[in-house]
Fold Xanthine dehydrogenase family protein molybdopterin-binding subunit.
Amino acid sequence: MTTPAAPPRTSATGAPHTRREGRVKVTGEARYAGDIPFAELAHGWLVTSTVARGRIRSIDEDAVLALPGVLAVLHHGNALRLTPGAGFMGPDANLQVLQDDRVPHVGWPVALVVAETQEQARAGADALVITYDEEPHDTAFRADHPGLRATAPSPLAMPDVDQGDPDAELAASAVVVDGEYTTPEEFHNAMEPHASMARWENGRLEVVDSNQGSYAVAQVLATLFSLDVDTVRVRSEHVGGGFGSKGLRLPHTVLAVMATTVLHRPVRVLLTRRQMFSLVGFRPATAQRVRLGADGDGRLRVIEHETASATSTVHEYAEQSTRHSRILYAADAFRLRTRVVPLDMPTPAFMRAPGWAPGSFAVESAMDELAAEAGLDPIALRLRNEPEVGPVSGLPFSSRNLVACLEEGARRFGWADRDPRPGVRRDGRWLLGTGVASSAHSAGVGPSTAAITAEADGTFTVRVTAADIGTGARTALSQIAADALETPPESVRIQIADSDFGPAWLAGGSMGTASWAWAISEAAIALRKKLADVVDVPPEGITADADTTELLGAREQRESHGYGAQFAEVAVDPLSGEVRVRRMLGIFAVGRVVNPLTARSQLVGGMTWGLSMALHEEGARDDVSGGLANGDLAGYHVAAHADVPAIEADWVEDHDTYNPSGIKGLGEIGIVGGAAAIANAVWHATGVRHRHLPISLDRVL
Ligand code: MOS
C-alpha cells in the first residue's frame, strides 16, 4: 500500500555554499572597475560646485589646459549635448551633466578635467578656477517648511490613503499615542567607490563599471547619447557594495562617455569618498508624525502616518516611509500621507530598504509606546493586530508568518521573563533593557531574461545580466541553475554583469535573486525540452533562453512581503550616555533561502546597519554653506567592529509560490525595524523615549 519513495536527490539550494569568487577576493586577485588596466587609458577628475545655488559665471580652463598631461576640460560651454528624458522609471535631470550653467546644490558636477594620469587630472581639477553668481539657498529641512507639498504622481510614489473615519476612531480610542519621529540624512558608503571606464571599440560603446545592473546602465546611456541600446555594452567584474547608490545616478559614467567620445581614447572617472556624499544619492532626512488609537485591550482603531522628507530642486525623490504602516497591522481607519520639501541639496535616492527603514523606526517605536500606555506586552500587542488580508489594499497575502517570527524570536531571545518596567535593571553602572520591533520588506520580482547553453562536455553555461554586489549572487544563481538542470553546481558556469546577455532586473529592491532565478528556471525548462531529442550535443552547444515579462504580467495581485522580528538588548551608562548593544536577534520569514551562508551574512549586514542607524549615522548639513560638515568617513560615523556585538539572524519556514522560485529576497529587510528595537530597548533601560535618531551620547538622558 505504500508507494516506493523517490530516490533522494541532493538539492543544491538550501545548502551552504561558499562564494565562487571568495578565493579571488581574499587573495586580492579580484579586479574592481577602478583597477582594470586599459591601453592608452586617460583619467578624468570631477570638479564639483562649492556654492549651493546660482549660476556659473566663468571657468578659467586655459590655465589648466597648460598644465602637464592635461588633455581636456569639459564644462557646460563645450560638453556634448545629451538627450533629455533618461532615467530609471521616469526622467531624472541629475543625468543631464554639464548641460547648463545652473548650480542646484553644493557638490554638483561642473567640470571634468581629463589628463594622462590620475594625479595630473586631480592637480588640474584642483587648479581650475570657477566663479559663480551666487543666489540665496535653503537647505534647512523641517516638517512645517512652507515648501512642503504632496509628491508628484510617479510610478514610485505611494498614493495617500484615507480609509474609515480616523478622527472618530481617535476620539473613541481608550489609548492614544501621538508622536513626531525624525531621522537624519544618512549616506551610502559602499566599500568600493564608484568607477567607470568608457571607450569606443569597433563602433560600439563599451563601459566597464561598478554598478547594480549593467543592462539598466546601458539603457540610460543609450537614451542620453541617442544610441541604439545594442551598440552599448556595459559590464562589471566585481562590485564592492551598492545599496541603491550604483546604477541610477551616474554622473561619472556619463562624463567618461563624453570624454572618450571627444578624445578617442579610453577614459576612466572615479569618484572620491567625499564626492559620493553628493553625487550618488542618500537617504533624506524624514519627519514623521504617527498617531495610533486603540481599545483598552490593544486592538488598533486607527493608524495615522504622515511623513515628510527632503528632496532637491533637480528631481523629486520621496522617502516612502508609509510603506511600513500599509502592511503591518490591521486597523479600522487609516490616514497616510507622503510629502516632500524641495531644497537646494543633492537629490536623495534609494538606500537600503528605502522608506521601510525610517518608516519602521517611527511605527515600531509608536507601537512600543502604545504597549506601554495600554499596559500590554509589546509582542502581545503586535499579535492582537495581525491582519487577515492587506490592511490597506484588502489583497490576500502571498504568505506572511510574522507571528511565527515574533513567537520564535521571543522563545530564543528569552522574552518570557521580561519585566516590563523601564529603568529598573542594573549591571554595575549600566542600565539594562530589551526591545522588539517587527520588520517587513516588499518581495517583488522584475522582468528578466536568461540563457543557458548545454556544452558538448556535459557542463552548462548560464548567462544573465545579474550583478553580484557582494551578496553572493553568483553562487546562489549557480545553485538555482544546478537544481533546475538536475546537475551538480560544479557543472554550472555562471556568467553575469554583461549587458550583452540581455535585459534583467537590477540588484535592487531585494528583487534580484528572485527575478534572475525565475528566468534561469524557465530557460532550464526550455533547454531540457530541447535536449530531450538530442543524441550528441554539437561542439557549439545547445542554447535555450527565457524572458519572464509575460509570465509576470499574467499574475494575480498579492501582498507579497518578507517579514521579521528583531530583538535587542542594550546597556546604557547613565553618566556618559554611552549605549552598548549587547546582543541582537533577528528571526525572518523570507521565503526559500537559497544559500544559508550568504543569506545569513546579508541579514546580519542589514541588522548591523540598523544598529548603526540607531546609534551613529547622521549627516550634519551646514545650512550656511549648504554642504555637509561631515561628508567623509572621518566625520560620518558608521558602526565599527567594536560597536557590534554577536548578531544572530535566522529564519522560519516560509513557503510561498507567488513567484515559482519561492524566493522573497533578503537584501534589505535586515535593516528594517532594527533601529526601533534598539530605541525601544533604550527606553526599557532608562525610561527615556527616543523619537529622534541617532541616539547619540549627548541625547541619551
Ligand atoms: Mo536597493 S536601495 O534597492 O539597492
